[in-house]
Fold these 2 entries.
Entry 1:
Amino acid sequence: MEIKRRKTRQVRVGDVRVGGGAGVSIQSMVKAESADVKAVVSQIKALESCGCEIVRVAVKTFDDADAIRLIKKRTNIPLVADIHFDYRLAIRSIAGGADKIRLNPGNIRSRGEIAQVIRAAKSSRIPIRIGVNSGSVMSRSQAADRRPQTDNRKPITENRKPTMAGHLVDAALGYVKLFEDLEFRDIIISLKSSDVASTVEAYRRIAAKCDYPLHLGVTASGPYDSGIVKSSMGIGALLLDGIGDTIRVSLTASPIEEVIAAKRILSALGIRRSGPEIISCPTCGRCQVNLMKIVSELEKRLYAIRYTLYANRFATIALMGCEVNGPGEASAADIGIAFGKSTGMLFKKGKIVKRVKAKDAVRELIRNL
């Protein structure tokens, strides 16, 4: 099935095009203090080597902002400065060569301060991401709810309160209006919640209201296993709708794992392929080999070479536990093995090539890939 993607204006982040028909780009975020230039550069180089195309760093202090210049000198992929609370950090980061700024409408709200950031971004010809998250939006909303009501103000009934998605969209569009009033349209938008359904609803709503490119993600999705599930559901649902121009899988894990997860999501949807893909049966009582062990060994071997030797070889590898799921059902695979008792038939494009022993299966697949 071909996914019909939403039409958007195009924005450039360094040499990466976002939106306007460009491919869905993969992002991650450095998990070290930005002032620690050596650690940041090391992480960025590792991220770039595994396929990350845009990387973000947290800028909490002026030392962090000043480090942008040094980081840029030692790395190649576009660098995004993540700014909260203090607009001056954005201006300092732009002066240091940041390729994009992320601002949070939840904690930088002064029109005058935003105007200064926009002026600097215009001068350097870089875009700004309006990055809304549920934590900041809800804290403001709850503060508003605690304000005493006047006698002539009708109480808001529960069913009239905006949803989380509504809060996210309203916050983003309010910021967008301010940017447009200041004649700035090099904008990317994100609306992230840790709740999958709210995140998906928010992106669907805003996709219908503007043509700016969207950065997808489920924020604070949690540790590796549960985070992968939540991110895949949220990001995948939107990508199937044709919504989304750049993505980040947010995990409480290594940023390398974020990039690999993003690549797997895009590959599963047929949007981008990256290295060999394994398809394997779930096994049942007919299986007479330890297929889980074989699949695990193959995955480890491919993991080690996925983004190097075979990075541009998009083979599909099938491992099937019996003749029921053999070459017939896995005929679309480029190569595979259908197992019997202790041996299996290696096949390519549905045609049997030779018999192999189970203990040699992974070696034979890699050799014949």
Entry 2:
Amino acid sequence: MKALLKEWIKVATIIIVASFFGYQTFKIPSESMKPTLLVGDFIVVNKYCYGYSQDTFRIGTINVPFLNFKGRIFSCSLPQRGDVVVFRNEKDKNQNYIKRIIGLPGDTIQLKGGIVHINGEAAPLVDDGEYSDIENGEYFIQKKYIEQLPNGVNHVIIKREALGKGRLDNVGPYQVPLGHYFLMGDNRDNSQDSRVLESVGYIPIECIMGRADLIFFSSSCSWWEILKWPFSARYERILTQIK
């Protein structure tokens, strides 16, 4: 019995250390990253890829009190354009957000007619058909596009409004400060992101907790409804890479 207890303690210690320094799981609560991420996706976030900041070690929305330091340590790479990241939003009660990096430090970002312009150059949109969706019991169709970023990253976005007609389709220019990033949701007409300076704005690198790498489970029901998981699981999304 004592040997079994030791093994359980060893396993628990490994899991805690791995979660603290390596990978952490999050559940997607909102629709701002559709169709890349859906409500009910459980994702794995790589915490060491950009090095560590104080916010890397947050437990939920709580910072570990004895880890109080500035900047990032053990950083071997920087966040790249197109990365999907989890970050602490200082302007929304320090809540955790997840968005895609569009602008790097020093960039000028502007939206014209729904098209992102980075340092004066348009990020091309390629028509990718339609995306069927349900919201509050209402079925509707959105336009789907592939957005091409300057570093070659292609990703899908959706638009409920016609290009140029969305609330945040004609905004900017934004000058991204050094040490900060400009982030946007893939669900362009249903995302509170860096385009809204008073609510999100530019994100300091210290607030980035890590890069979202993998969907390890996905379900359309609530997490506590375990008996429904076999019937509500989105099996086609399990263990898919986040792009």
